[in-house]
Design brief:
Layout: E1 2-9, E2 25-32, H1 34-45, E3 48-51, E4 60-67, H2 69-79, E5 83-88, E6 91-95, H3 97-108, E7 109-120, H4 121-132, E8 136-138, E9 147-156, H5 157-165, E10 171-175, E11 178-182, H6 184-189, E12 204-213, H7 214-225, E13 229-230, E14 239-248, H8 249-257, E15 262-267, E16 270-275
Parallel strand pairs: 3-6, 8-11, 13-16
Antiparallel strand pairs: 1-7, 2-4, 5-6, 7-9, 10-11, 12-14, 15-16
Length: about 280
């Protein structure tokens, strides 16, 4: 195995100036979805706004009166529990705050020169984690020992992930609080959102499991979170894996359960493990 790398760390430049296709936007959102909002912003204000999948599925009621474009988009993003990021010119994207933080790490860390020869995939991803401080999780269904060879110059780690995943029939997405790498088919079959868990869902927990029996993991969560998780006998020997410094409790369950085709539902003050519904 041969690896040579030279890094240049640079902050990601995010425009903070106001984009003004015409000051004083007047927009009305009545039970609007993200798709509807994007269409209205394009047709009425000439703005190209891309909404992350995690922002979709919610409907908003909002009136915009006399706001410049930047303030208007920030208000709309907030209504979707997301944040707005200017991409230059008339282009914006709206996505959860944690996704913006991860993209800053991937796009703001540059690689001046890199050469990798027959390097294990898990070792390469560990290198990316170390250099960017981004949480990256490889789907256990992907063979971690597969090797990669590549050369790259004057790029960032977002582009580098594309160079590694796309030619090798893999895909990376921002899901469950991390950069999650799998295949396009498996990503399509996994829910976009973590399982709905009331109360403790947003409490952050560390996870570090490598092929651990599911009942043992659920018992640990019960001690840590005070939440009872019932595991039917048919899943008693199911093994789960994921390693992340700290994610929300619902995201941790998604990272551990979705790759093995499972989820949790609330039943009588407890969570019960079950199979993911067909077609998510």
């Amino acid at each position: 195995m041969r690896i040579a790398i030279l890094l240049l760390l640079a902050p990601l430049a995010l425009a903070d100036e106001e984009v003004r296709p015409g000051d004083g936007l007047i927009l009305s959102f009545d039970n609007a979805t993200a798709e509807t909002a994007a269409k209205l912003l394009k047709n009425d204000a000439g703005l190209k706004v891309q909404f992350a999948p995690q922002c979709k599925g919610k409907r908003i009621e909002l009136q915009i009166r006399g706001l410049p474009a930047k303030s208007a988009i920030e208000r709309i993003a907030e209504a979707f529990d997301c944040k707005a990021q200017h991409r230059g010119g008339m282009k914006w994207r709206v996505l959860p705050g944690w996704q913006i933080d991860l993209l800053k790490k991937l796009e703001g860390t540059r690689v001046v020169d890199l050469a990798v020869d027959e390097m294990r995939l898990d070792q390469f991803l560990r290198l990316v984690r170390d250099q960017t401080r981004a949480d990256i999780v490889l789907d256990p269904a992907i063979q971690a020992s597969r090797t990669i060879t590549l050369q790259a110059n004057n790029t960032n780690y977002r582009a580098l992930l594309d160079l590694v995943t796309q030619p090798n029939e893999m895909r990376w997405e921002l899901r469950y609080g991390v950069v999650f790498i799998s295949t396009a088919t498996r990503l399509k079959n996994m829910p976009i959102h973590p399982p709905a868990i009331p109360g403790t869902a947003r409490t952050r927990v560390p996870i570090n499991f490598d092929k651990v029996n599911l009942p043992a993991v659920c018992q640990m969560f019960q001690v840590l979170m005070g939440v009872r998780i019932e595991v039917p006998k048919e899943f008693a020997k199911t093994k789960v894996s994921a390693k992340v410094k700290r994610v929300r409790f619902d995201e941790a369950l998604a990272l551990l359960l979705y790759p093995v085709g499972l989820t949790v539902t609330e039943k009588e003050s407890a969570l019960t493990v079950g199979r993911l519904p067909a077609g998510k």
